[in-house]
Each structure stands twice: as C-alpha cells, then as structure tokens.
Amino acid sequence: MAIRFYKVYDFEVHGTEPQALHSVRTIEIENKMICLARISEGYFAIDDRCPHAGARLGLGKCTEEGMVVCPVHRYQYDAKTGKGASKQGDYVNTYPIEKREDGIYIGIEKKWWQL
Ligand code: FES
Known about the structure:
The protein is mostly beta strands. It is built from one helix and ten strands; from the N terminus they run βαβββββββββ. The protein binds FE2/S2 (inorganic) cluster. FE2/S2 (inorganic) cluster (FES) binds next to loops.
C-alpha cells in the first residue's frame, strides 16, 4: 500500500490563505468525498460521511477547539484524530495532509497497481 498525494489548494491560484480559519468544506478526490477542515493547528482531512446517518460533514461547521460538527444532528468529530465526541465511540477515517511550498495536499492510500 502506498500513498498518493493530491493537490487541493494551489497557493498561486488560491492564495496562501485559501480556506477560512475554523471552517470545513467537502473535496472530492477520485470519487472519495473528504471533509477538509482548517483549524488553528493547520489543515486536517477526515471522511466526509458522518457515521451516524450519512450526512456530509463538509456542510457542517468547525469549532475553535477543532471539532467538526455534523450539520444534521450535531455529532462532533475531532478534525485531527477523527474520534467522535459522543459516547458511542464512533470515528471517521483521517487522511494525511502535507503543506508544501506550492500548496496543500491530501494523501490517499493506493494499491501499487493504482499508482
Ligand atoms: S447524520 Fe451526522 S449526527 Fe446524525
């Protein structure tokens, strides 16, 4: 298994502050929906699908504490770890982020024959 990184923000095109602090948005990479959050520690990526009932987390909001809030029933997920705040112990997958000189990249795991 290897990781391929995809550029989601290009600093030349989108500027060096392409997404507002404490915000979320949905990004589609190769048919995978990912919620990209910008919190005070930087950018973090988690699955866009809420495990409770399938809402899109990228349509929710982000707290100053770095919790992504689902827009439907307001369950919260840690943008850095994907861990849910509810007692059910739910979580969402996380994806690696790289901030490079030219932009922000999200890493997606690939099988060797998909590289
Ligand atoms: S669908 Fe996200 S909390 Fe219910």
